[in-house]
Write a structure and sequence with these properties.
- By secondary structure, the protein is an alpha+beta fold.
- The protein has 4 helices and 5 strands; from the N terminus they run αββαβαββα.
- It is globular, with a radius of gyration of 14 Å.
- It has a 5-stranded mixed β-sheet with strand order 2-1-3-4-5.
C-alpha cells in the first residue's frame, strides 16, 4: 500500500474520530477504509447505555460501505484515544476483525493500519490479527 494512501486514511480516520459518541468510555475512535475503486468510507464509535448495543468505528465504516454497494475492502486505518490525553494504538476488536474478514479483496487480505499520528503507525494484514477466521 502506498504511503500517501496510508496517510490519507489516517487523516480521514482522525477526522471521523471527532464525531464519536463516547460518553461512557470517553475513548473516541475513528476509522477510514478504502475499497478497490479508491472510494473512502469513514466511521466513528457510537456508544449506548446498554453497552451491547455500542458500535465500533470499524464496523460503522464497513456498514456504510456495504450499504452503498461495496463488497470488498482493501485497507482500513483506525485512530483512537481518550477524550483528553494521548492517542493510543486502537486495534480492532474480535467482532470487527470477523466483520472485515467477510469482505476480503481479490488480493485475499486487508491492510490494517493502527495509528497514533501520521508518523506513528503500525501496519498489519488482517490474517495476522485474525488467523483462521470463521468463513463458509
Amino acid at each position: 500500500m502506498k504511503e500517501e494512501v496510508i496517510k490519507l486514511l489516517i487523516t480521514e480516520a482522525d477526522k471521523a474520530r471527532k464525531y464519536a459518541y463516547a460518553p461512557y468510555s470517553n475513548f473516541l475512535v475513528g476509522a477510514a477504509l478504502v475499497v478497490p475503486s479508491g472510494r473512502i468510507f469513514t466511521g466513528c464509535n457510537v456508544e449506548n447505555s446498554s453497552y451491547g448495543l455500542t458500535n465500533c468505528a470499524e464496523r460503522t465504516a464497513v456498514f456504510k460501505a456495504i450499504s452503498e454497494g461495496q463488497r470488498h475492502i482493501d485497507a482500513i486505518a483506525i485512530v483512537g484515544g481518550p477524550l483528553a490525553g494521548e492517542m493510543e494504538y486502537a486495534y480492532p476488536c474480535g467482532a470487527c476483525r470477523q466483520v472485515l474478514a467477510e469482505f476480503l479483496p481479490e488480493s485475499g487480505d486487508i491492510d490494517i493500519i493502527v495509528a497514533k499520528s501520521l508518523e506513528d503507525y503500525k501496519k498489519f494484514k488482517l490474517s495476522e490479527l485474525l488467523p483462521k477466521s470463521f468463513s463458509l
